[in-house]
Amino acid sequence: MATGTLEEGQVRAMFDRIAGVYDRMNRVMTVGLDQQWRRRAADLSGVGPGDRALDVATGTGDLALELAARVGPGGEVVGSDFAEEMLARARAKAGEAPVRFEWGNALALPYDAASFDAATVGFGARNFSDLGRGVAEMARVVRPGGRVVILEITTPQRAPLSWFYGVWFDRAVPALGRVAGDSDAYTYLPSSVKRFPGPRDLAALMAGCGLRDIRWILTAGGIIAIHVGTVPEAAA
Hints:
alpha/beta; Rossmann fold; globular
């Protein structure tokens, strides 16, 4: 098996195992900026009052809740994940928000074609065992003219940030994982980031899945990439 990859069942078990520390670890690893990046991704989805949105690999639901704030009480957000422990924590956060959290496999989404105005994934795409299939599924369930948004960690190419990034992800993050009680999960994280396509390659993959008008934004000095693609309108 390639470095940074796990079988689907292993990924599910890993996220069930770390669900209790997941949010705290995210805040520590990103110095609290991960919520800001999710807000940016939700803005780029283009959803508004009354819309219907899907958040794939929703984890503990933070991006889904950002989408819910934008669709309002007249809209609906579905947060889908295959790790039940993560979903349990997402449901505990939801309150009265117009969002429901349910089990689903990103590679075979249990939703009709063109049934959402947008689909997002935040820090989950690199865990897809088949990235092309997962992105194609997201595109399938979005209506023509709707958007697919992928928020993910990427590898900065320029020093000095590239040096800091290497030290942080290769040494500090696994050490934090040991403190949190799961060194394997937080050793997997930097490996999974390294094997994930860079921004241009991810854009090309999205185009290969039929998306159009693809663009991406690099933020946090090039550590975070947010890609947006549009499902094309049907030919007249």
